[in-house]
Amino acid sequence: MKKTTMTVAAAILAGSMGLGTLTSQAAEYEDATNARTEGTVTILENDSSNPVIPDPENPGEEIYPEVPVNPHPGQLRINYVSNFDFGKIKNVSSEIVQEARLDQVFSGTTEEGRVPFVATEDRRGSDRLGWELQVSQPKQLSDESGHELQGATITLSGLRYANPTAAMPVVNQNEIVLGETAQTLATANASQGAGAWTLALGNANSEGHTDGVVLRIPANTTKNDTAYSTALVWELVADPTNTTGE
Asked: What is the pLDDT at residue 3?
Protein backbone atom coordinates (compact mmCIF):
# COMPACT_ATOMS: atom_id res chain seq x y z
CA MET A 1 0.00 0.00 0.00
CA LYS A 2 2.82 2.43 0.81
CA LYS A 3 4.63 1.66 -2.43
CA THR A 4 1.48 2.28 -4.47
CA THR A 5 0.92 5.65 -2.81
CA MET A 6 4.46 6.76 -3.51
CA THR A 7 4.22 5.74 -7.17
CA VAL A 8 1.02 7.71 -7.72
CA ALA A 9 2.49 10.79 -6.03
CA ALA A 10 5.56 10.61 -8.23
CA ALA A 11 3.45 10.37 -11.37
CA ILE A 12 1.39 13.40 -10.39
CA LEU A 13 4.54 15.38 -9.69
CA ALA A 14 6.06 14.43 -13.04
CA GLY A 15 2.93 15.50 -14.88
CA SER A 16 2.79 18.86 -13.14
CA MET A 17 6.41 19.57 -14.05
CA GLY A 18 5.90 18.74 -17.71
CA LEU A 19 8.16 15.65 -17.37
CA GLY A 20 5.44 13.16 -18.20
CA THR A 21 1.69 12.64 -18.38
CA LEU A 22 -0.74 10.40 -16.58
CA THR A 23 -2.31 7.67 -18.68
CA SER A 24 -5.99 8.47 -19.16
CA GLN A 25 -8.68 7.69 -21.69
CA ALA A 26 -9.15 10.81 -23.78
CA ALA A 27 -12.63 12.14 -24.43
CA GLU A 28 -14.06 11.06 -27.79
CA TYR A 29 -15.89 13.65 -29.87
CA GLU A 30 -18.05 11.97 -32.47
CA ASP A 31 -19.12 15.20 -34.09
CA ALA A 32 -19.91 18.78 -33.22
CA THR A 33 -22.73 17.86 -30.82
CA ASN A 34 -21.83 14.42 -29.42
CA ALA A 35 -19.06 13.39 -27.01
CA ARG A 36 -18.13 10.28 -25.02
CA THR A 37 -16.13 10.32 -21.75
CA GLU A 38 -15.51 7.71 -19.05
CA GLY A 39 -15.92 7.29 -15.31
CA THR A 40 -13.46 5.12 -13.36
CA VAL A 41 -13.13 3.67 -9.88
CA THR A 42 -10.62 1.30 -8.29
CA ILE A 43 -11.79 -1.14 -5.62
CA LEU A 44 -9.18 -1.74 -2.93
CA GLU A 45 -8.93 -4.80 -0.68
CA ASN A 46 -10.76 -4.32 2.62
CA ASP A 47 -8.39 -5.49 5.36
CA SER A 48 -10.47 -4.08 8.24
CA SER A 49 -10.67 -6.23 11.37
CA ASN A 50 -14.11 -4.77 12.21
CA PRO A 51 -16.76 -6.88 10.46
CA VAL A 52 -20.12 -5.54 9.36
CA ILE A 53 -23.05 -7.15 11.22
CA PRO A 54 -26.46 -6.06 9.92
CA ASP A 55 -29.26 -5.98 12.50
CA PRO A 56 -31.38 -9.14 11.95
CA GLU A 57 -34.54 -7.06 12.48
CA ASN A 58 -33.42 -3.82 10.80
CA PRO A 59 -30.88 -4.79 8.11
CA GLY A 60 -30.20 -1.17 7.20
CA GLU A 61 -28.62 -0.70 10.63
CA GLU A 62 -25.52 -2.27 12.18
CA ILE A 63 -25.37 -3.90 15.61
CA TYR A 64 -22.51 -4.73 17.94
CA PRO A 65 -22.71 -7.95 19.97
CA GLU A 66 -21.59 -7.93 23.59
CA VAL A 67 -19.28 -10.91 23.05
CA PRO A 68 -16.32 -10.87 20.63
CA VAL A 69 -16.81 -11.26 16.89
CA ASN A 70 -14.66 -13.40 14.58
CA PRO A 71 -11.11 -11.93 14.66
CA HIS A 72 -9.86 -13.83 11.60
CA PRO A 73 -9.70 -11.92 8.29
CA GLY A 74 -11.09 -13.28 5.07
CA GLN A 75 -13.19 -12.29 2.08
CA LEU A 76 -15.65 -15.09 2.89
CA ARG A 77 -16.27 -15.38 6.61
CA ILE A 78 -18.65 -16.00 9.47
CA ASN A 79 -18.55 -12.69 11.29
CA TYR A 80 -20.53 -13.78 14.34
CA VAL A 81 -22.63 -16.65 15.71
CA SER A 82 -24.75 -16.47 18.86
CA ASN A 83 -24.31 -18.91 21.71
CA PHE A 84 -27.50 -20.71 22.73
CA ASP A 85 -28.38 -19.98 26.35
CA PHE A 86 -31.36 -21.96 27.63
CA GLY A 87 -31.07 -20.51 31.11
CA LYS A 88 -31.78 -22.48 34.31
CA ILE A 89 -34.32 -25.30 34.41
CA LYS A 90 -35.67 -27.14 37.47
CA ASN A 91 -34.97 -30.88 37.61
CA VAL A 92 -38.43 -32.28 36.90
CA SER A 93 -39.57 -35.70 35.68
CA SER A 94 -41.86 -34.39 32.94
CA GLU A 95 -40.70 -33.44 29.44
CA ILE A 96 -38.76 -30.18 29.29
CA VAL A 97 -39.24 -27.79 26.36
CA GLN A 98 -37.10 -24.69 26.75
CA GLU A 99 -36.52 -21.84 24.29
CA ALA A 100 -33.15 -20.09 24.01
CA ARG A 101 -32.77 -16.64 25.51
CA LEU A 102 -32.30 -13.57 23.34
CA ASP A 103 -28.79 -12.40 22.45
CA GLN A 104 -27.68 -9.06 23.89
CA VAL A 105 -26.35 -6.51 21.41
CA PHE A 106 -25.79 -2.78 21.16
CA SER A 107 -27.83 -0.83 18.64
CA GLY A 108 -26.10 2.53 18.71
CA THR A 109 -25.55 3.07 22.43
CA THR A 110 -28.65 1.14 23.52
CA GLU A 111 -28.44 -2.45 24.74
CA GLU A 112 -31.19 -4.54 23.20
CA GLY A 113 -32.21 -8.18 22.79
CA ARG A 114 -32.12 -9.97 19.44
CA VAL A 115 -32.99 -13.53 18.52
CA PRO A 116 -29.86 -15.71 18.13
CA PHE A 117 -28.37 -15.11 14.70
CA VAL A 118 -25.56 -15.95 12.28
CA ALA A 119 -23.81 -13.06 10.48
CA THR A 120 -21.91 -13.86 7.27
CA GLU A 121 -20.02 -11.75 4.76
CA ASP A 122 -18.85 -12.42 1.21
CA ARG A 123 -16.56 -9.79 -0.31
CA ARG A 124 -15.19 -11.99 -3.10
CA GLY A 125 -15.20 -10.78 -6.70
CA SER A 126 -17.00 -11.79 -9.86
CA ASP A 127 -15.51 -15.31 -9.82
CA ARG A 128 -17.54 -16.25 -6.73
CA LEU A 129 -20.02 -19.11 -7.11
CA GLY A 130 -21.93 -18.69 -3.86
CA TRP A 131 -21.73 -20.39 -0.47
CA GLU A 132 -23.52 -22.74 1.90
CA LEU A 133 -23.96 -22.26 5.67
CA GLN A 134 -23.92 -25.50 7.66
CA VAL A 135 -24.17 -26.51 11.32
CA SER A 136 -23.69 -29.73 13.27
CA GLN A 137 -23.70 -30.94 16.87
CA PRO A 138 -21.07 -33.69 17.09
CA LYS A 139 -21.77 -34.63 20.74
CA GLN A 140 -24.69 -34.75 23.14
CA LEU A 141 -25.19 -32.25 25.93
CA SER A 142 -23.11 -33.41 28.88
CA ASP A 143 -21.89 -32.20 32.28
CA GLU A 144 -18.31 -31.92 33.59
CA SER A 145 -18.36 -35.57 34.70
CA GLY A 146 -19.29 -36.69 31.17
CA HIS A 147 -22.90 -37.60 31.95
CA GLU A 148 -25.08 -37.06 28.88
CA LEU A 149 -28.68 -35.90 28.65
CA GLN A 150 -29.89 -38.95 26.76
CA GLY A 151 -32.39 -38.11 24.03
CA ALA A 152 -32.08 -34.33 24.42
CA THR A 153 -32.33 -32.36 21.16
CA ILE A 154 -31.79 -28.80 19.97
CA THR A 155 -34.11 -27.78 17.15
CA LEU A 156 -33.78 -24.75 14.85
CA SER A 157 -36.76 -23.34 12.98
CA GLY A 158 -38.20 -20.13 11.58
CA LEU A 159 -34.91 -19.19 9.89
CA ARG A 160 -35.21 -15.88 8.06
CA TYR A 161 -33.49 -12.86 6.54
CA ALA A 162 -35.20 -9.54 7.20
CA ASN A 163 -34.36 -8.00 3.81
CA PRO A 164 -36.05 -10.08 1.09
CA THR A 165 -34.48 -9.23 -2.27
CA ALA A 166 -33.42 -11.15 -5.36
CA ALA A 167 -29.90 -11.31 -3.89
CA MET A 168 -31.12 -12.90 -0.63
CA PRO A 169 -29.72 -16.37 0.18
CA VAL A 170 -32.19 -19.27 0.17
CA VAL A 171 -33.19 -20.39 3.67
CA ASN A 172 -33.95 -23.93 4.81
CA GLN A 173 -37.63 -23.72 5.79
CA ASN A 174 -37.72 -27.09 7.55
CA GLU A 175 -37.22 -27.76 11.25
CA ILE A 176 -33.60 -28.76 11.80
CA VAL A 177 -32.82 -31.16 14.62
CA LEU A 178 -29.09 -30.79 15.28
CA GLY A 179 -26.92 -33.90 15.15
CA GLU A 180 -23.55 -35.28 14.11
CA THR A 181 -24.19 -34.75 10.38
CA ALA A 182 -23.78 -31.20 9.09
CA GLN A 183 -27.07 -29.70 7.91
CA THR A 184 -27.65 -26.73 5.63
CA LEU A 185 -29.21 -23.56 7.02
CA ALA A 186 -28.90 -21.29 3.97
CA THR A 187 -27.44 -21.39 0.47
CA ALA A 188 -26.44 -18.75 -2.06
CA ASN A 189 -25.58 -19.09 -5.73
CA ALA A 190 -23.40 -16.78 -7.82
CA SER A 191 -26.06 -14.04 -7.86
CA GLN A 192 -27.04 -14.34 -4.19
CA GLY A 193 -25.44 -13.75 -0.81
CA ALA A 194 -22.80 -11.18 -1.77
CA GLY A 195 -22.02 -8.69 0.99
CA ALA A 196 -23.14 -8.91 4.62
CA TRP A 197 -26.20 -10.94 5.70
CA THR A 198 -27.64 -11.83 9.11
CA LEU A 199 -29.70 -15.01 9.49
CA ALA A 200 -32.21 -14.72 12.33
CA LEU A 201 -33.26 -17.87 14.17
CA GLY A 202 -36.97 -17.57 14.89
CA ASN A 203 -38.96 -14.75 16.44
CA ALA A 204 -38.74 -13.14 19.85
CA ASN A 205 -41.50 -13.42 22.45
CA SER A 206 -42.44 -11.22 25.38
CA GLU A 207 -40.49 -13.40 27.81
CA GLY A 208 -37.13 -12.65 26.21
CA HIS A 209 -36.76 -15.93 24.33
CA THR A 210 -36.89 -17.11 20.70
CA ASP A 211 -39.17 -19.76 19.26
CA GLY A 212 -36.50 -20.62 16.71
CA VAL A 213 -34.03 -22.39 19.05
CA VAL A 214 -35.65 -25.00 21.29
CA LEU A 215 -34.16 -27.54 23.71
CA ARG A 216 -36.19 -30.67 24.38
CA ILE A 217 -35.37 -33.15 27.14
CA PRO A 218 -37.58 -36.28 27.23
CA ALA A 219 -39.62 -37.14 30.32
CA ASN A 220 -37.87 -39.24 33.00
CA THR A 221 -34.40 -38.41 31.66
CA THR A 222 -31.67 -38.84 34.27
CA LYS A 223 -30.28 -35.39 35.08
CA ASN A 224 -27.68 -34.21 37.55
CA ASP A 225 -28.20 -30.87 39.28
CA THR A 226 -25.45 -29.12 37.36
CA ALA A 227 -24.64 -27.35 34.09
CA TYR A 228 -24.74 -29.19 30.76
CA SER A 229 -23.19 -28.00 27.51
CA THR A 230 -22.29 -29.05 23.99
CA ALA A 231 -20.29 -27.63 21.09
CA LEU A 232 -21.98 -26.58 17.85
CA VAL A 233 -19.87 -26.51 14.68
CA TRP A 234 -20.66 -23.86 12.06
CA GLU A 235 -19.10 -23.82 8.59
CA LEU A 236 -19.43 -21.48 5.62
CA VAL A 237 -18.63 -23.59 2.56
CA ALA A 238 -17.33 -21.66 -0.45
CA ASP A 239 -18.71 -22.34 -3.94
CA PRO A 240 -20.65 -25.54 -3.05
CA THR A 241 -21.76 -26.00 -6.67
CA ASN A 242 -18.16 -26.08 -7.90
CA THR A 243 -17.51 -29.82 -8.16
CA THR A 244 -13.86 -30.90 -7.90
CA GLY A 245 -12.48 -32.07 -11.19
CA GLU A 246 -14.76 -30.07 -13.43
From this structure: 35
